[in-house]
Design goal:
Largest sheet: 6 strands, mixed
Structural class: mainly beta
Distance between the termini: 94 Å
Order of helices and strands: EEEEEEEEEEEEEEEEH
Helix content: under 10%
Radius of gyration: 31 Å
Shape: rod-shaped
Length: 196
């Protein structure tokens, strides 16, 4: 940017945007592994760290301005899933989390898994996951699983919830849609007639 002043008293009378490349702006990064700058001055952080950017103009005989820029570690992302969306009572299901960090796998400190809001296990090495047991006397309900990933900078991100339906033990007890079916005496008579 630039400021145009009147010659009389030095009062600023206009503000001119000079950051675009077409206006001669130039940018030089001291450490390009930390950040990059577009031709129009848009900065994109690459790795946490501190570096400087030299800002000049090829059409104007002015000394470049040195700007110090710090890139901070961004939070990781997390997505919780399982190999299916239901579990039978006393059966088990494998729950896992896909995590990504701007520093790669080394940027992840740990993943805390919660079931119905209660912490159940903290995993500090990939692959991130655990085996979830289907609880007794919970048929017809669901369990809500979430994960909280923490990176090495202390940033935390909570996943979207993943709901797992609880079905009766022994899949033959329930119907195909997971609902209980109560048999009547008429059903019993019809079944016996089929056998005779």
């Amino acid at each position: 940017s630039g400021v145009v002043t009147s010659g009389a008293n030095g009062t600023a009378i206009a503000h001119i945007e000079m950051s675009e490349a077409r206006l001669g702006a130039t940018y030089t990064v001291a450490d390009p592994t930390v950040l990059q700058v577009s031709a129009d001055g848009q900065i994109t952080g690459l790795l946490p760290g501190v570096t400087s950017v030299s800002v000049g103009n090829k059409f104007m005989s002015i000394d470049p301005v040195i700007v110090t820029v710090e890139v901070k570690d961004g939070p990781a992302t997390i997505e919780v899933s399982a190999n299916r969306t239901w579990v039978a009572e006393n059966d088990s299901i494998q729950v896992s989390a896909i995590v990504n960090d701007d520093l790669g796998p080394t940027g992840i400190k740990d993943v805390l898994f919660l079931v119905d809001g209660t912490p159940v296990i903290r995993v500090s090495t990939a692959p991130y996951g655990f085996t979830l047991q289907g609880p007794e006397r919970r048929s017809g309900t669901s369990m809500r699983v979430t994960g909280i990933v923490t990176d090495i900078a202390g940033n935390t991100t909570t996943s979207a919830p993943f709901d797992i339906q609880v079905k009766p033990a022994g899949g033959s007890v329930g119907s195909a849609d997971g609902q209980l079916h109560f048999f009547t005496s008429a059903d019993d008579i019809a079944f016996r007639e089929k056998l005779s």
